[in-house]
Amino acid sequence: MQRLRKKVQGLNRAITVERLIHNWVRPHFSLGKKITPAMAIGYIKRPIMIEEMLNSRSWKDNTF
Known about the structure:
Elements: H1 2-25, H2 37-40, H3 50-55
């Protein structure tokens, strides 16, 4: 049971990372040229680089 729980936790982490990249980093051409879903709804002004995401402790103090 312990092994299964670790596998599920690892999968959840991987899905979370993919969701962050999908919404904040990778532009979607169906929304327009070089626009991420987060930009489309007005959360940010430009796509975030993966390095920024990994090095940031909190996004609430950053203005992208």
